[in-house]
């Protein structure tokens, strides 16, 4: 009897088609122009019949003439606050690994033929020495008050390429930099330091909130209130940098080191930026436009803008000729009945590349929409067939909890779980098992812990031992037996393992 496989595709599965990674997606949506999405919102408003109950009871008075608001750069303070508070350890660790980020950026720049002169040669021509001979380790050190036992930010100064940025700034008067590039260089350095200091300050603040007194034998209840005295100034701890990289002008004619610096900043922010709480805090107002019309507008237009961004990515940037996981699965020996396919991606790329009727969109889709008034999911035409309401694209279901209570969404998760339970093995491709996807992590965890299923994880070679990688994932996924998790390392470009076997062929031989 032929084996059946349950597949789960994440954002990493579509990178070979030039779709953005999850981190790039998080950053790019705040660069997307909102003009068309704002007009779409106004069109939805114009289609509403003002005499019906929906308009008179659910919407605020004079809704048809109220100002339509969108997210502005003022929301960046909320984003940075959430990012630093939730990801402070990740921020410090990534910035402490500045050279790794720099090398990844340089590799991309070389592959993309941006600045044909290699960065190291540019640095040597300007500074008369290579990065290997540059260090700020003896020049800078953060105050001991900032560093904690768990977070020490001084690792940044051991990185050669950060030393390069500082060396450039020291010698600006001897270099042919434009006024704008001089300011950019200062802003790049300042942003890196502000983000690092903000993360460390948040850790110190959190530790003090938990332990204000070194000795406390009184244990008075009101002492618990004292810990909130110290707070991080999030308006400067990264906000200026986020504004800089999302609102900057064209830098294609800037000095190569400026372009390099901005690309490193992009990579840092794309890896650490967290906006789940921001969306959660605004999602509530989708159901109560009377309470705060401005916030209702902002979250609605934001969701339409995310959809616009995804559609534009597929139409303009996707490499239609590229081969990836979808074609390889399509060309495998597995037939329709042997495949159960779930995806956390939003675009229709998987439908275009993989002709299967079994695809389940677990986090929404650009062709699915949500009516918060009726808590109903459907196509745009279906939802407005009887009566026109404000609707939004069904995206970020892991953030807004209400769409998960819609019958059709609940059915998807139950259907997917039951099909995976009946499969012989489960395979994930490009899925990160991150906390935002806990609703899906829970399904996988149950299948392994309770239903005794085997999980095969296809991922780029991390350089770690397979056993170490599976044990780390078991801890992350809260799986009891790590031996149920099988890591298949592949080359991300060829999608083949160390023996030259295509990932799908490895599965077919199980």
Verbal overview:
The chain is 46% helix and 8% strand. It is α/β, with parallel strands linked by helices and 510 residues long. The strands form two sheets. The protein has a six-stranded parallel sheet with strand order 3-2-1-7-8-9, with helices on one face. A three-stranded antiparallel sheet has the order 5-4-6, sandwiched between helices. Helix 19 (466-477) links the parallel strand 8 and strand 9 (485-490). Helix 8 runs parallel beside helix 10 (256-272). The two termini are 13 Å apart.
Give descriptors for this structure.
globular; 510 residues; 6-stranded parallel β-sheet; Rossmann fold; 20 helices; 9 strands; alpha/beta; SIR2-like domain-containing protein; 2 domains
Quick overview of this protein structure:
The protein is an alpha/beta fold. It folds into two domains: 5-19 and 318-363 and 398-508, Rossmann fold (3-Layer(aba) Sandwich); 75-276, no CATH class. 46% of the residues lie in helices and 8% in strands.
